[in-house]
Design brief:
two-stranded parallel sheet; 22 helices; mainly alpha; about 425 residues
């Protein structure tokens, strides 16, 4: 199982060599080329959002310091950091085989991501949200693994300061985690953390740029519609995640194998379990729907997905004494099923299909031709063929018929070309 997981994760990392930047990647890179870098980043709070950490990463774009190679390496780095965050967090709970668990949980998570392109390969979407989910799991492990001492308190202060700077959702979900810890412990130091985190949330949420960004959408701030759509999307995503057979096959192994043991009292309380598993996806859906009126992208559900599966498997292991009596040990028939599912469930299936069929390679070649065309186009209008045979693992936003649309303009400005006009390549 470990070998298979490593093969899957290495294959996901290899997709990075096929990807190209698009949309916001160009917008941020252009801002990073302005004379005063620090001033440009700080100005984002007034004009777009209050994300004081992710803005530094995106505006300090790898396109400016490493070109396409730097951009692609950021995806590989994100996969490595995701694994490392799981590994460190699981080790804090003193679980056996944390190396194996980190790999299998990450494979399961990625196989169920709502959108692998936005979750792993699109710099602007992935690096705003996925590092925050890694930090949330680390925050959970520090809050609920072992004694809560001064060292842990200071570590949490650093984590919540960095994490809140990635996006507003971290600031809100971390409030939930700390609140659950306070409910569980009534510790005055945890209450102090709750107050600090509330201040950090207010800082990123109250940024003037948030109001400007929301003003670009007409159907936002509708409470009934927001709650309705949040409920529908949350049921959809949790339903899809719970349909993953790996949840039940791996859960069976974790429950019946005596070497997987963990003591996390908070994960044995139904109210806490419900809050930790369900509330993050509710927040992840409600935030963008409230701000824009729609869930146009899957960046926020991706973030919630990276938190859902580690917590779900910890819940199963923490409650194995209760669940074991309903199961009989017999792992011999489980392993062949895990092999099939691990290689063939949803995103993992599309990953291998896109690579083996050559669809990903063909799509990447089309993007490379687009870049070459725009770099060499010095005329007033640049006619760009529409992309064909879009793969499932990674794709870019389609160009619009209007060359003044921001998606088209981002290409024109970054490559210093004429107006970008899409055409059908017959």
């Amino acid at each position: 199982m470990l070998v298979l997981c490593l093969i899957v994760l290495i294959t996901y990392a290899s997709v990075s060599f096929f990807i190209f930047p698009y949309a916001d990647d160009f917008t941020y890179a252009l801002k990073g080329q302005l004379p005063n870098f620090v001033e440009t980043v700080l100005k984002e709070r007034q004009t777009w959002n209050g994300r004081y950490i992710s803005n530094f990463i995106l505006i300090g774009s790898p396109l400016n310091w490493g070109g396409l190679t730097g951009y692609r390496l950021m995806s590989i780095l994100l996969i490595i950091l995701s694994w490392l965050g799981l590994y460190i967090g699981l080790r804090r709970f003193k679980l056996n085989s944390p190396f194996f668990l980190a790999n299998i949980i990450l494979c399961t998570t990625i196989s169920s991501l709502p959108d692998t392109g936005e979750g792993l390969y699109w710099l602007s979407g992935a690096w705003t949200y996925i590092p925050a989910s890694i930090l949330l799991f680390l925050l959970f492990s520090i809050l609920f693994a072992g004694k809560f001492d001064v060292k842990n308190y200071l570590t949490i202060l650093v984590l919540i300061f960095i994490g809140s700077g990635f996006n507003e959702l971290f600031a809100l979900i971390s409030l939930l985690l700390i609140a659950v810890k306070f409910y569980d412990s009534r510790n005055k130091w945890v209450l102090a953390l709750l107050i600090v985190q509330l201040g950090l949330f207010y800082y990123v949420w109250s940024a003037p740029g948030n109001d400007y960004r929301s003003s670009l959408f007409n159907n936002n701030h509708q409470i009934i519609n927001s709650l309705k759509l949040t409920g529908m999307y949350s049921v959809r995503f949790i339903g899809e995640w719970m349909l993953n057979p790996l949840v039940y096959l791996l859960g069976y192994i974790f429950i019946t194998d005596s070497k997987f043991e963990v003591e996390i009292p908070v994960l044995r309380k139904p109210i806490s379990i419900g809050a930790l598993l369900i509330t993050p996806i509710l927040i992840a859906c409600f935030g963008p729907i409230w701000s824009t009126g729609i869930l146009g992208q899957h960046r926020t559900p991706n973030m919630s997905c990276f938190l859902f599966f580690p917590l779900l498997f910890l819940v199963l292991i923490a409650n194995k004494s209760v669940l074991f009596k309903y199961l009989k040990e017999g792992k011999s028939f489980v392993f062949p099923l895990i092999v099939v599912v691990l290689l063939g469930w949803k995103n993992n299936y599309f990953l291998f299909e896109d690579l083996i069929s050559g669809q990903l390679s063909n799509y990447s070649n089309q993007l490379a031709n687009r870049v070459e065309l725009l770099e060499n186009c010095k005329s007033e209008e640049c006619f760009v063929p529409m992309l064909l045979d879009e793969p499932n693992t990674f794709s870019v936003y389609k160009l619009e018929a209007n060359p003044e649309h921001w998606k088209n303009k981002s290409y024109r400005l970054f490559y210093n070309s004429g107006k970008v006009i899409p055409i059908v390549n017959r």
